[in-house]
Amino acid sequence: MQQLPKLSANAIEILKTTKNLLAFSGGSDSTALFFILKELNIKFDVALVNYQTRKESSLEEEYAKQLAKQNNKECFTLTCKLENNNFEHNARSTRYTFFQEIIDKNAYDVLLTAHHLNDKFEWFLMQLSRGAGAVELSGMNEVEETQNFKTIRPLLHVEKKQIETFLHVNKIKYFLDASNNDKKYFRNQIRNEFSNAFCEKYANGIKKSFDYLQRDTKRLLPKNTQHIKNLYILENNEDDLINIRGIDKIVKKLGTLLSSASREEILRTKDCIVSSKIAVVFSQNKIYICPWIKITMDKKFKEACRVEKIPSKIRPYMYKENISIETIL
Q: Is the CB of residue 5 less than 8 Å from the CB of residue 166?
Protein backbone atom coordinates (compact mmCIF):
# COMPACT_ATOMS: atom_id res chain seq x y z
CA MET A 1 0.00 0.00 0.00
CA GLN A 2 1.11 3.57 -0.68
CA GLN A 3 1.71 6.42 1.79
CA LEU A 4 1.73 4.01 4.74
CA PRO A 5 1.93 6.03 7.99
CA LYS A 6 4.88 4.87 10.07
CA LEU A 7 4.12 3.28 13.44
CA SER A 8 6.68 3.51 16.22
CA ALA A 9 9.19 0.66 16.52
CA ASN A 10 8.13 0.23 20.15
CA ALA A 11 4.47 -0.32 19.24
CA ILE A 12 5.29 -2.76 16.43
CA GLU A 13 7.63 -4.77 18.67
CA ILE A 14 4.89 -5.22 21.28
CA LEU A 15 2.08 -5.97 18.82
CA LYS A 16 4.01 -8.69 16.99
CA THR A 17 3.88 -10.88 20.12
CA THR A 18 0.50 -10.03 21.70
CA LYS A 19 -3.16 -10.91 21.16
CA ASN A 20 -4.73 -7.66 19.98
CA LEU A 21 -8.22 -6.17 19.84
CA LEU A 22 -8.88 -3.10 17.66
CA ALA A 23 -11.54 -0.61 18.75
CA PHE A 24 -13.23 -0.05 15.37
CA SER A 25 -15.87 2.45 14.29
CA GLY A 26 -15.75 2.51 10.49
CA GLY A 27 -14.49 6.09 10.58
CA SER A 28 -11.29 7.29 8.92
CA ASP A 29 -8.91 6.71 11.85
CA SER A 30 -9.84 3.17 12.89
CA THR A 31 -10.28 2.10 9.26
CA ALA A 32 -6.79 3.36 8.41
CA LEU A 33 -5.35 1.57 11.43
CA PHE A 34 -7.10 -1.66 10.34
CA PHE A 35 -5.33 -1.60 6.96
CA ILE A 36 -1.98 -0.43 8.38
CA LEU A 37 -1.92 -3.32 10.86
CA LYS A 38 -2.91 -5.72 8.10
CA GLU A 39 -0.08 -4.44 5.88
CA LEU A 40 2.40 -4.93 8.75
CA ASN A 41 1.18 -8.51 9.31
CA ILE A 42 0.09 -7.74 12.86
CA LYS A 43 -2.68 -10.06 14.04
CA PHE A 44 -5.79 -8.51 15.57
CA ASP A 45 -9.57 -8.79 15.89
CA VAL A 46 -12.13 -5.97 15.94
CA ALA A 47 -14.83 -4.66 18.26
CA LEU A 48 -17.52 -2.08 17.43
CA VAL A 49 -20.32 -0.40 19.39
CA ASN A 50 -23.40 0.62 17.41
CA TYR A 51 -25.13 3.46 19.31
CA GLN A 52 -27.87 3.73 16.66
CA THR A 53 -27.49 7.52 16.61
CA ARG A 54 -27.30 7.94 12.82
CA LYS A 55 -28.71 6.25 9.74
CA GLU A 56 -25.15 5.13 8.87
CA SER A 57 -24.71 3.28 12.18
CA SER A 58 -26.00 -0.04 10.90
CA LEU A 59 -23.94 0.34 7.70
CA GLU A 60 -20.79 0.89 9.78
CA GLU A 61 -21.55 -2.24 11.77
CA GLU A 62 -22.06 -4.23 8.59
CA TYR A 63 -18.80 -2.84 7.17
CA ALA A 64 -16.92 -3.99 10.28
CA LYS A 65 -18.36 -7.49 9.94
CA GLN A 66 -17.57 -7.56 6.22
CA LEU A 67 -13.93 -6.50 6.71
CA ALA A 68 -13.48 -9.01 9.52
CA LYS A 69 -14.90 -11.87 7.46
CA GLN A 70 -12.79 -11.00 4.41
CA ASN A 71 -9.64 -10.93 6.53
CA ASN A 72 -10.36 -13.93 8.81
CA LYS A 73 -10.82 -11.89 11.97
CA GLU A 74 -13.23 -12.09 14.88
CA CYS A 75 -15.74 -9.24 14.99
CA PHE A 76 -17.45 -8.37 18.27
CA THR A 77 -20.37 -5.93 18.15
CA LEU A 78 -22.69 -4.33 20.66
CA THR A 79 -25.91 -2.56 19.66
CA CYS A 80 -27.34 -0.16 22.24
CA LYS A 81 -29.38 3.00 22.66
CA LEU A 82 -28.24 5.69 25.12
CA GLU A 83 -29.98 8.74 26.49
CA ASN A 84 -28.91 12.08 25.04
CA ASN A 85 -28.16 13.43 28.50
CA ASN A 86 -24.35 13.35 28.96
CA PHE A 87 -24.11 11.16 25.86
CA GLU A 88 -20.34 11.36 25.36
CA HIS A 89 -19.60 10.22 28.92
CA ASN A 90 -22.15 7.39 28.78
CA ALA A 91 -20.97 6.28 25.36
CA ARG A 92 -17.36 6.08 26.51
CA SER A 93 -18.34 4.14 29.63
CA THR A 94 -20.47 1.70 27.61
CA ARG A 95 -17.74 1.27 25.01
CA TYR A 96 -14.92 0.51 27.43
CA THR A 97 -17.08 -1.78 29.57
CA PHE A 98 -17.81 -3.75 26.40
CA PHE A 99 -14.12 -3.87 25.47
CA GLN A 100 -13.20 -5.01 28.99
CA GLU A 101 -15.73 -7.86 28.81
CA ILE A 102 -14.31 -9.04 25.46
CA ILE A 103 -10.76 -8.84 26.76
CA ASP A 104 -11.58 -10.77 29.92
CA LYS A 105 -13.51 -13.49 28.09
CA ASN A 106 -11.03 -13.96 25.23
CA ALA A 107 -7.70 -13.21 26.95
CA TYR A 108 -6.59 -10.30 24.77
CA ASP A 109 -3.36 -8.60 25.81
CA VAL A 110 -3.80 -5.27 24.03
CA LEU A 111 -6.62 -2.87 23.20
CA LEU A 112 -5.73 -0.83 20.09
CA THR A 113 -7.23 2.61 19.58
CA ALA A 114 -6.76 4.93 16.60
CA HIS A 115 -6.03 8.18 18.46
CA HIS A 116 -3.60 10.34 16.51
CA LEU A 117 -1.54 13.52 16.97
CA ASN A 118 -4.49 15.85 16.36
CA ASP A 119 -6.48 14.02 19.06
CA LYS A 120 -3.61 14.41 21.52
CA PHE A 121 -3.29 18.13 20.79
CA GLU A 122 -7.07 18.53 21.00
CA TRP A 123 -6.98 16.96 24.49
CA PHE A 124 -4.12 19.30 25.45
CA LEU A 125 -6.18 22.37 24.50
CA MET A 126 -9.27 21.09 26.31
CA GLN A 127 -7.27 20.59 29.51
CA LEU A 128 -5.51 23.93 29.09
CA SER A 129 -8.87 25.69 28.84
CA ARG A 130 -10.01 24.10 32.10
CA GLY A 131 -6.88 24.84 34.11
CA ALA A 132 -4.54 21.85 34.31
CA GLY A 133 -1.03 20.95 35.40
CA ALA A 134 1.80 19.37 33.41
CA VAL A 135 0.72 15.77 34.06
CA GLU A 136 -2.83 16.41 32.87
CA LEU A 137 -1.65 18.40 29.85
CA SER A 138 0.64 15.60 28.67
CA GLY A 139 -2.51 13.57 28.09
CA MET A 140 -2.64 10.14 26.50
CA ASN A 141 0.45 7.96 26.06
CA GLU A 142 1.31 5.57 23.26
CA VAL A 143 1.36 2.63 25.69
CA GLU A 144 -0.62 2.57 28.92
CA GLU A 145 -0.96 -0.26 31.42
CA THR A 146 -4.44 -0.97 32.73
CA GLN A 147 -5.70 -3.64 35.11
CA ASN A 148 -5.10 -6.71 32.95
CA PHE A 149 -4.17 -5.41 29.50
CA LYS A 150 -2.28 -2.66 27.68
CA THR A 151 -3.89 0.14 25.72
CA ILE A 152 -1.74 0.99 22.69
CA ARG A 153 -2.27 3.98 20.39
CA PRO A 154 0.03 3.26 17.42
CA LEU A 155 -0.98 6.42 15.50
CA LEU A 156 -0.40 8.88 18.34
CA HIS A 157 2.50 10.62 16.58
CA VAL A 158 0.78 10.55 13.15
CA GLU A 159 -0.99 13.63 11.77
CA LYS A 160 -4.63 13.46 10.71
CA LYS A 161 -3.77 14.62 7.19
CA GLN A 162 -1.37 11.64 6.80
CA ILE A 163 -4.21 9.29 7.70
CA GLU A 164 -6.55 10.94 5.19
CA THR A 165 -3.90 10.83 2.46
CA PHE A 166 -3.31 7.12 3.10
CA LEU A 167 -7.03 6.37 2.76
CA HIS A 168 -7.45 8.54 -0.34
CA VAL A 169 -4.41 7.23 -2.22
CA ASN A 170 -5.34 3.60 -1.56
CA LYS A 171 -9.06 4.20 -2.23
CA ILE A 172 -10.10 2.70 1.10
CA LYS A 173 -13.75 2.99 2.07
CA TYR A 174 -14.65 4.65 5.37
CA PHE A 175 -17.56 6.56 6.91
CA LEU A 176 -17.82 10.22 7.88
CA ASP A 177 -19.53 11.02 11.18
CA ALA A 178 -21.44 14.28 10.76
CA SER A 179 -21.76 14.64 14.55
CA ASN A 180 -18.04 15.51 14.63
CA ASN A 181 -19.06 18.93 13.31
CA ASP A 182 -21.75 19.52 15.93
CA LYS A 183 -20.46 22.42 18.03
CA LYS A 184 -22.73 21.64 20.97
CA TYR A 185 -19.89 19.28 21.99
CA PHE A 186 -16.94 21.14 23.50
CA ARG A 187 -14.47 18.73 21.91
CA ASN A 188 -15.79 19.60 18.45
CA GLN A 189 -15.47 23.33 19.13
CA ILE A 190 -11.81 22.88 20.04
CA ARG A 191 -11.18 20.60 17.07
CA ASN A 192 -12.85 22.69 14.39
CA GLU A 193 -11.93 26.16 15.61
CA PHE A 194 -8.41 25.64 16.96
CA SER A 195 -6.60 22.30 17.08
CA ASN A 196 -6.82 20.98 13.51
CA ALA A 197 -5.61 24.17 11.83
CA PHE A 198 -2.82 24.71 14.38
CA CYS A 199 -1.71 21.07 14.19
CA GLU A 200 -1.60 21.11 10.42
CA LYS A 201 0.69 24.14 10.46
CA TYR A 202 2.96 23.30 13.41
CA ALA A 203 2.88 19.48 13.67
CA ASN A 204 6.66 18.99 14.03
CA GLY A 205 6.93 21.47 16.87
CA ILE A 206 3.91 19.92 18.62
CA LYS A 207 5.50 16.46 18.42
CA LYS A 208 8.74 17.74 19.97
CA SER A 209 6.85 19.60 22.71
CA PHE A 210 4.89 16.49 23.64
CA ASP A 211 8.13 14.48 23.84
CA TYR A 212 9.62 17.05 26.23
CA LEU A 213 6.40 17.28 28.24
CA GLN A 214 6.21 13.49 28.56
CA ARG A 215 9.75 13.29 29.94
CA ASP A 216 9.22 16.22 32.29
CA THR A 217 5.98 14.85 33.76
CA LYS A 218 7.67 11.59 34.71
CA ARG A 219 9.73 13.61 37.19
CA LEU A 220 6.53 14.87 38.83
CA LEU A 221 5.09 11.43 39.55
CA PRO A 222 5.79 9.37 42.71
CA LYS A 223 8.79 7.07 42.27
CA ASN A 224 8.42 4.55 45.10
CA THR A 225 5.37 2.39 44.46
CA GLN A 226 4.84 -1.02 46.02
CA HIS A 227 2.65 -3.34 43.99
CA ILE A 228 1.14 -6.62 45.22
CA LYS A 229 -1.44 -7.92 42.74
CA ASN A 230 -3.88 -4.98 42.49
CA LEU A 231 -2.95 -3.47 45.84
CA TYR A 232 -0.77 -0.39 45.31
CA ILE A 233 1.09 1.43 48.07
CA LEU A 234 2.53 4.91 47.54
CA GLU A 235 4.60 7.05 49.84
CA ASN A 236 2.44 9.78 51.39
CA ASN A 237 4.15 12.90 50.08
CA GLU A 238 3.91 16.25 51.85
CA ASP A 239 2.75 17.70 48.53
CA ASP A 240 -0.81 16.54 47.83
CA LEU A 241 -0.39 17.50 44.17
CA ILE A 242 2.20 14.74 43.81
CA ASN A 243 -0.05 12.37 45.77
CA ILE A 244 -3.10 12.91 43.59
CA ARG A 245 -1.07 12.48 40.41
CA GLY A 246 0.19 9.13 41.63
CA ILE A 247 -3.31 8.09 42.70
CA ASP A 248 -4.78 9.21 39.38
CA LYS A 249 -2.29 7.06 37.45
CA ILE A 250 -2.99 3.95 39.54
CA VAL A 251 -6.77 4.36 39.55
CA LYS A 252 -6.58 4.59 35.75
CA LYS A 253 -4.64 1.32 35.70
CA LEU A 254 -7.48 -0.21 37.68
CA GLY A 255 -9.94 0.84 34.99
CA THR A 256 -11.43 4.07 36.37
CA LEU A 257 -10.93 7.73 35.42
CA LEU A 258 -10.93 10.26 38.26
CA SER A 259 -13.26 13.22 37.90
CA SER A 260 -12.41 16.60 39.45
CA ALA A 261 -15.00 15.89 42.16
CA SER A 262 -13.35 12.53 42.93
CA ARG A 263 -9.92 14.14 43.22
CA GLU A 264 -11.29 16.74 45.62
CA GLU A 265 -13.03 14.07 47.71
CA ILE A 266 -9.87 11.96 47.94
CA LEU A 267 -7.76 14.87 49.18
CA ARG A 268 -10.49 16.14 51.50
CA THR A 269 -11.38 12.82 53.18
CA LYS A 270 -8.12 10.87 52.71
CA ASP A 271 -10.33 7.78 53.08
CA CYS A 272 -12.93 7.05 50.40
CA ILE A 273 -14.34 4.70 47.76
CA VAL A 274 -14.05 5.96 44.18
CA SER A 275 -16.98 5.17 41.87
CA SER A 276 -18.01 2.35 44.23
CA LYS A 277 -15.03 0.41 42.85
CA ILE A 278 -11.69 1.49 44.28
CA ALA A 279 -10.55 2.15 47.85
CA VAL A 280 -8.12 5.04 48.39
CA VAL A 281 -6.87 5.42 51.96
CA PHE A 282 -4.12 7.60 53.44
CA SER A 283 -2.13 6.64 56.54
CA GLN A 284 0.57 8.75 58.14
CA ASN A 285 3.29 7.55 55.77
CA LYS A 286 1.52 5.62 53.01
CA ILE A 287 -1.36 5.72 50.54
CA TYR A 288 -3.19 2.44 49.83
CA ILE A 289 -5.14 1.87 46.62
CA CYS A 290 -6.96 -1.34 45.66
CA PRO A 291 -10.28 -2.68 44.35
CA TRP A 292 -13.13 -2.20 46.83
CA ILE A 293 -14.96 -5.42 47.67
CA LYS A 294 -17.21 -6.76 50.39
CA ILE A 295 -16.34 -10.15 51.85
CA THR A 296 -16.63 -12.00 55.14
CA MET A 297 -13.20 -12.15 56.78
CA ASP A 298 -11.71 -14.46 59.36
CA LYS A 299 -11.76 -12.94 62.87
CA LYS A 300 -8.08 -13.62 63.44
CA PHE A 301 -7.19 -11.80 60.23
CA LYS A 302 -9.36 -8.83 61.17
CA GLU A 303 -7.79 -8.63 64.62
CA ALA A 304 -4.27 -8.85 63.19
CA CYS A 305 -5.12 -6.00 60.79
CA ARG A 306 -6.47 -3.92 63.67
CA VAL A 307 -3.33 -4.44 65.72
CA GLU A 308 -1.09 -3.46 62.79
CA LYS A 309 -3.37 -0.52 61.92
CA ILE A 310 -4.13 -1.78 58.41
CA PRO A 311 -6.88 0.49 56.96
CA SER A 312 -10.27 -1.21 57.07
CA LYS A 313 -11.15 -0.47 53.44
CA ILE A 314 -8.23 -2.47 52.04
CA ARG A 315 -8.60 -5.48 54.34
CA PRO A 316 -11.27 -7.29 52.26
CA TYR A 317 -9.11 -7.22 49.12
CA MET A 318 -6.06 -8.41 51.06
CA TYR A 319 -8.07 -11.26 52.56
CA LYS A 320 -9.55 -12.33 49.21
CA GLU A 321 -6.15 -12.28 47.47
CA ASN A 322 -4.33 -13.86 50.43
CA ILE A 323 -1.94 -10.90 50.78
CA SER A 324 -0.10 -11.23 54.07
CA ILE A 325 0.04 -8.32 56.48
CA GLU A 326 3.82 -8.59 56.74
CA THR A 327 4.31 -7.81 53.05
CA ILE A 328 2.79 -4.33 53.32
CA LEU A 329 4.24 -3.17 56.65
A: yes
